[in-house]
Specification:
Layout (H helix, E strand, L loop, with lengths): L17 E10 L2 E11 L4 E5 L6 H9 L6 E6 L2 E2 L2 H4 L2 E4 L10 H11 L8 H7 L15 H13 L5 E5 L7 H15 L4 E5 L3 H7 L2 E6 L2 E7 H6 L4 H7 L6
The structure holds adenosine-5'-triphosphate (ATP) and magnesium ion.
């Protein structure tokens, strides 16, 4: 694979292209992300795949500025992110951290931090994640899956231009998974670029326009989803989708 990979679609979205330029990230002398380069210009949904410990969460954290590369750069429209660019992004983590407030207050708190007029209708958003009837409940009393749905709603409050999700449906029942997938598809058509990590290959097939596959901190494949599932550019990726890759 060449160092920089391109997938061609329209350049309509703000924050695009997102470009990793030979990005490395180390901790305690270990290279956890190893000279990763790619250029994302597709406005659709990008899915990050890879085995446990491959570096997927770190890759996303680097995009959101929570970790800083030791080498290389992450660029948005050709520049390193500043505060203004960060404010156009939202990220949902593997483990939801909610405020000790009611469900609706978790949303209104975030809405008030941003420009209120840009915020979505909060009740409508709660209904979209199936939590309208729980709006006055303390958020911390929600079940694990409900907390995950609330975190997604909270991330969507200010209609981010870039939405980063770390296994957003990992602990959800099939009905809730469908609900979230519908919501993601809706936001994808509302000008939000979505990048998410999943271990659910069927979900990746359903939603992804392109796939980033990483293994041991290295970019092994970056392809349109159809091509990836047909014939991935990497033997590791082939082993992974056939259920044969052991980390
Ligand atoms: N602060 C750190 N110090 C040392 N090692 C770390 C640190 N953070 C992450 N790692 C290691 O980096 C590797 C990649 O971690 P990461 O969380 O990105 O994996 P992942 O691909 O998201 O895996 P999973 O599918 O299990 O969530 C792991 O082996 C992890 O132990
Ligand atoms: Mg992870």
């Amino acid at each position: 694979m060449s160092d920089t990979n391109l997938i061609k679609t329209q350049l309509e979205y703000n924050l695009l292209p997102i470009e990793y330029c030979s990005v490395s990230f180390h901790k305690s002398g270990i290279r956890l992300i190893d000279r990763v380069s790619f250029k994302l210009i597709s406005k659709g949904i990008t899915v990050i795949l890879g085995p446990n410990g491959a570096g997927k969460s770190i890759l996303l954290r680097l995009m959101h500025g929570l970790d800083i590369p030791n080498e290389g750069k992450v660029l948005f429209e050709g520049v390193v992110a500043d505060e203004k660019i960060r404010r156009k992004q939202a990220m949902v983590f593997q483990n939801a951290i909610l405020l000790r407030r009611s469900v609706i207050e978790n949303l209104s708190f975030v809405a008030n931090l941003h420009q209120p007029k840009k915020s979505s209708n909060l009740i409508e958003l709660l209904a979209e994640v199936g939590l309208a009837d729980k709006q006055h409940m303390p958020a911390r009393r929600l079940s694990g899956g409900e907390k995950q749905r609330l975190s997604l709603a909270r991330a969507l409050v200010c209609q981010p231009e870039l939405l980063l999700l770390d296994e957003p449906t990992a602990s959800l029942d099939p009905y809730s998974v469908q609900m979230i997938e519908t919501l993601l598809s809706k936001f994808r058509h509302r000008n939000t670029k979505i990048i998410f990590i999943t271990h659910d290959l069927n979900q990746a097939r359903r939603l992804a326009e392109d796939i980033i596959f990483i293994h041991k901190g290295k970019l092994e494949a970056f392809q349109p989803a159809d091509a990836f599932f047909e014939k991935p550019d990497s033997d590791f990726a082939q082993a992974f989708i056939s259920g044969r890759l052991i980390f």
